[in-house]
Every structure is written in structure tokens, then in C-alpha cells.
Design a protein that fits this description.
Layout lengths: L1 H23 L7 H30 L4
Length: about 60
């Protein structure tokens, strides 16, 4: 089992050290935390707008009571 897990652990460690650590040090809007917060916020805003449209359509057709 160890011969299967060792390469996986090495790959995960390599990806954190070479990809994620340098990305975490980017300034301003390029910072991954900022990007994720903006994407999630835009997704929630889109969802709320679409849900409002679906609710209005359902009320007009008598689907909501």
C-alpha cells in the first residue's frame, strides 16, 4: 500500500510547493482568495437574479401558493 501512496504524497507536496505557494503571494486582485471570493459572489448574485425570475414566472402561472 505504501508504494501506491508515496507517489501520490510526493505529487501533492510538489503541487503545493511549486504552484500554490507562489500563487498565494500574488498581490491585490490576483490573489487566489480574492479571485475565489469574487467568483462566488458573482455566482450567488446570478443565482439570486435567476431565482427571482423563476419565482415571478411560477406566480404568474399559479405554481407557487
Amino acid at each position: 500500500m505504501q508504494h501506491i501512496l508515496d507517489p501520490i504524497v510526493a505529487l501533492i507536496l510538489w503541487s503545493f510547493e511549486t504552484l500554490l505557494e507562489p500563487l498565494g503571494e500574488l498581490p491585490g486582485l490576483l490573489n487566489p482568495n480574492t479571485v475565489f471570493v469574487l467568483l462566488i459572489s458573482l455566482g450567488l448574485l446570478y443565482w439570486i437574479v435567476q431565482q427571482g425570475k423563476y419565482n415571478k414566472k411560477a406566480e404568474a402561472e399559479g405554481g407557487l401558493k
